[in-house]
Amino acid sequence: MTRSSKAHKRRNGRGARTPASPSNPLKKKTIETSGASQKATAEIVDPRVQQQLKQYEEALLYFQQQKFHKAKQILEKVIAGPSKELGDRAQVHQRIIEQRISRLPAPTPRTPEEHYQCGVAMMNLGRWDEAREHLLRARKLAPKADYVFYAMAALDCLTGEAEAAMENLKMAIELRPENRYHARNDEDFAFLQEDPRFTELLYPEREGSGS
To answer: What's the pTM value of the predicted model, to 2 decimals?
Structure first.
């Protein structure tokens, strides 16, 4: 009886023994995740990162519109920004743009419309000389095509030629008055925004009400 009691007592002892509790990995992971989350939140609140994000979204818009030159210019600013994640994304799009530019086939346009399309495509890539060459050929073939004059005015703005831009835009509006309203919201004409002649050309009703 005594021996049986002792054996039972030893079994109870082993059964009641609890293993040493290991360190809680979930708790450590939660702390690390919380720290990363705080860092990400701090980046988003940073006005420099907000500006960088805004530039990135603007570049993507130009990228979708196939205005690769403008997209590339803005992406360069994003890459130089404080957020490494946004900078890495911008570099990916930069590489895609460079690949697409290098793969462009050599155009062989013949009609005014084809020269016009090639001119606009070259403008979007920032190849100003080629763009001007195609637009001049389009104008020679179709001297009354308002859209060609409009494109040439935009190209003049992008290359900093205010006088030529005003002349071409004025002609585009004379040939088709609706171009006046398109130019009001066209970012390509930002170069002329401070020129009073530009305001007078696009908003003739203001001059009339002033007198």
So the answer is: 0.56
Model pLDDT for residues 158-176, shown as the tens digit of each residue: 999 999 999 999 999 999 9
pLDDT < 70 stretches in the chain: 1-44, 103-107, 206-211
As to burial, measured by CB atoms within 10 angstroms (0-12 exposed, 13-18 middle, 19+ buried), residue 27 is: exposed
Position 211 scores a pLDDT of 45
Tell me, letter by letter, the H, E, C secondary structure of the chain.
CHHHHHHHHHHHHHHHCCCCCCCCHHHHHHHHHHHHHHHHHHHHHCHHHHHHHHHHHHHHHHHHCCCHHHHHHHHHHHHCCCCHHHHHHHHHHHHHHHHHHHCCCCCCCCCHHHHHHHHHHHHHCCCHHHHHHHHHHHHHHCCCCHHHHHHHHHHHHHCCCHHHHHHHHHHHHHHCCCHHHHHHCCHHHHHHCCCHHHHHHHCHHHHHHHC
> Could you tell me if 128 and 69 are in contact, meaning their C-beta atoms sit under 8 angstroms apart?
no
Q: pLDDT, tens digit, for every residue of 116-136?
A: 999 998 888 888 999 999 999
